[in-house]
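Review form for a predicted model. The reviewer records the input and the model, then writes brief findings.
Reviewer: anonymous (R2)
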Amino acid sequence: MFFKQLATRESSLSYFFGCGTLGKAVAVDVVAGDEDWFVEQASNAKSEITHVIDTHIHADHYSGGRKLAAMTGAAYCLHESNQDFVRFPFTPLRDGQTIEAGNTIVKVMHTPGHTPDGMSLVVTDKRRGDEPWFVLTGDTLFVGAVGRPDLAGREREMAGVLFDTLRTRILPLPDTLEIFPGHQAGSVCGAGLSGKPSSTLGFEKRWNPALTISNREKFIEYVVREIPVRPANMDQIIATNVAG
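Model under review:
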């Protein structure tokens, strides 16, 4: 498997990975303006980009996912809950669905809380073994923090959804699983993000302040209290990403 992490604008982290043996690749959370980088990486890896995935509708940066998909002929993918929300066709992904990119297997996990449509992607390299290797957590779980729950305008409700997602979907995964989030320190998508761009689930269980709170109401109070200032152009960015 090849794997690239791209640190880009607004402290965002994008991903390019796949199977070099069979020449298939996946691009995740592409930021507008970075499309040529992914085309270059695919050429270097002698691979075809088959899927371009946004883990959710972004509120802090303009997505380049749809443009990259058009440039490469790949499927542009969002969670299926966006079918009545966005204004363009896309390939809907559902919870539990698997995507095969050669020997690289991507399992879709619906992980709402930061946004209603949030997804995490659990990735396995069949040449390495049958157990998952890493998870792209989007804006659900960061290194040292969790996603802000207020973008849908119902912060206490969504904070509760985030708690349930973390407890029932993320935390049961193996402690050895590597975590690659959608942002690092400097992002307004969460409070207290680390500058370290990756971690393991076991480390986060021990040291991430939000994950040490096992009481739902206390978690809600903690997350709501820590919400950063909303980006000034957030509504414009969402509207543009929804319109495509």
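Findings: The chain has a mean pLDDT of 96.
Further findings: The CA atoms of residues 39 and 72 lie 8 Å apart.
Recommendation: see findings above.
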